[in-house]
Amino acid sequence: MSETAIELDVLKTAERWAGEGRSLALATVIETWGSAPRPTGSHLVIDAEGNFEGSVSGGCVEGAVVAEAIDVIEAGAPKILEFGVADETAWRVGLSCGGRIRVYVERVA
Q: What is the pTM of this model?
């Protein structure tokens, strides 16, 4: 399945969940560096119960993003989250899953 098809599935899920009256947050990859497994623009939709669809990191940080998204749903204020290595020296020492990712999380329903 292409990245575009995956993103459409996530947005369809968000639309369906909103129609069911669920409170939602949408997490969007806004910046990557290094070997981030998902491109900029990738989405994760999360409901207030912690159910989610999509991916912002291929499983690396989804749990942390879901926890932050639940806070965003409750508080209503968006957040920018950053995960990853501190600097480029990680590449010199050969970390297998280096990279950095910034994710914008906002309440959408």
A: 0.83
